[in-house]
Structure formats: C-alpha cells, structure tokens
Write a structure and sequence with these properties.
alpha+beta, 5-stranded antiparallel sheet, 5 helices, about 30% strand, globular
Length: about 250
C-alpha cells in the first residue's frame, strides 16, 4: 500500500481521506500537488476536509477542501499533522441575511482601510495580510465580520446579486458592494466600494501600483491605475448571504 509520511511513521493514503480538521496555525496552501504556486493562505481556526493526497516525498501534499468557502487546494502533510487537529463534525455556518450584512459593512470597510494603512505589496494567493491579492482582501475583510465569500474574484462575482454600474453612473452602488473588472469573457479583478464610485483594491505593479490603494470609477480622474480599471469594468454585486461551505457534503 502506498503511504504518506516518513519511513518512521508511514501513513496509508486512504487513512486521512474524508477526515475533518481544524487548523490552529495559519498555513500556505498550494494550487497543485507539486510546485511553489500559492493558491491561498489558510488562517488558524479554519476547518477543512481531506480529499486525497500524494505518496512520495518531497511532494507529500494532501488535496483538501476548506469548509468555510468550499475552496479546494493542497496542503503539506507535515503542516496538517503538525498544526491541525482532527474534529468529528464540521462547524455549523451562521445564517446571514441582508439586514445583518448591512449592519456588518462598517466593520468590513474598517478592516480594508486599516489593511491599506500598513506597508503592503500585492501577493498572488495572499489572504492573511499585510500582503493580499484582490479577492483575498475582499474575502478577509468580510470574514473579519464573520461573513464568508468564495475565494476567487470570478466566484465572488457569481455569488453576489448584480448591481447596475457604469463609469460615471454609480448611484445604485452602496458601500460594501463588490466591483468587478476583467474581460467580456471572465472576471479577473475585484474591488470594495467605499462610496460615490471610490473603491479600495489590491493590484499588481503591471498596472502602476503594487499593493492596496483607492481608485475612482468616475471619469475625469486621469490616474493610470484608475483609468486602466475603468476601461475594464464588468459590473458590480451585493453580498446577500454568507457562503454555506460548512454544510458541504463529503
């Protein structure tokens, strides 16, 4: 039988599949069983289900699904065994409705603005700070208030209720709405609406910034970052509920 772990303590591949875990330390998670590509960062206290894994070191990673947002990724076996504990049941998600979310929006905005106030850079896969990617910042800001969004920008777009928006026509937007950018085919970027068309987001240096900043959807602002994203505006969305990932089936 193939094993996971070291020669001192071999572990069958199937022995962890389907088990539930709670992390007590923040960990990096990866997009593939091999390589250094960061998919996301997993905060201590989060829960996951092990799906399967690989057997041969130095690539002993397990494929897992994070329960709070349903996100699949890969974790090092040694990280899970050293910084996690098995649990019998997944956590029960708190139900959220729109009035409760509206009451939490000031906390969401405060988190994002405080994140911008400390030195930071854009980090693909960053969700813990001080370095974030665009959707990681949005997920972290809402999670700070207890509301879970999907991990990636295109998933967040699908998750939200659409709100009509165009450059210079932002009257229907509310603070805390998500603003989506990309191509006609796919959403590739997201920002957090602060009010009056201004939005906070984390963007990379290829568009003139390397980290968190505030830009404006309204024409007349000639900033190159704002201009780039204004030309790539896809739409906006409103968070109406929290992700129900804790109730995911095996």
């Amino acid at each position: 039988m193939a094993t996971l772990g070291t020669a001192r303590s071999p572990r069958p591949v199937g022995s962890l599949a389907g088990t539930l875990w709670r992390l007590f330390r923040s960990l990096d998670a990866f997009s593939r069983p091999q390589g250094s590509g960061l998919a996301t960062q997993v905060a201590g206290g989060r829960h996951l289900r092990v799906l399967d894994g690989v057997a041969e070191p130095p690539f002993s990673r397990l494929r897992v699904r994070l329960l709070e947002d349903g996100y699949p990724c890969w974790l090092h076996l040694s990280d899970l065994l050293g910084h996690g504990e098995r649990v019998a049941y997944p956590p029960l998600p708190r139900p959220w409705d729109r009035p409760a979310i509206e009451a939490a929006i000031p906390s969401v905005l405060a988190f994002a603005e405080q994140a911008m106030a400390v030195p930071n850079r854009y980090l693909w896969g960053g969700t813990l700070g001080p370095d974030f990617d665009c959707s990681g910042l949005l997920q972290a800001a809402f999670a700070h208030a207890g509301i879970w969004l999907p991990r990636d920008a295109y998933l967040q777009e699908r998750f939200c209720r659409p709100v009509a928006v165009q450059p210079g026509q932002t009257s229907l937007l509310q603070p805390g709405d998500l603003i989506f950018f990309g191509t006609p085919q796919r959403c590739t970027h997201v920002g957090l609406h602060l009010g009056r068309g201004r939005y906070l987001h984390s963007s990379g240096q290829e568009h003139g910034r390397d980290g968190l900043g505030v830009d404006d959807l309204n024409p007349g602002n000639g900033d190159p970052v704002a201009t780039h994203y204004r030309l790539n505006l896809r739409g906006a969305g409103r968070v109406m509920h929290s992700h129900d990932g804790g109730a995911l089936p095996p």
